[in-house]
Amino acid sequence: MPMIDVYAAAGTFGDTHTLARDLATAVMSVERVPAIPMFRDNTAAFVHELPAAATSNVNGDSTYVRVQVLTNAGALDREKQVAVVSQLTSIVADAAGDPSLADRTWVLLTEAPEGGWGLHGHASTNVELVAAARAQIAELGAASKA
Question: What is the mean pLDDT of each run of 10 residues along the chain (146 residues)?
Answer without folding.
Answer: 94 97 96 81 93 91 94 92 98 98 97 83 81 78 73
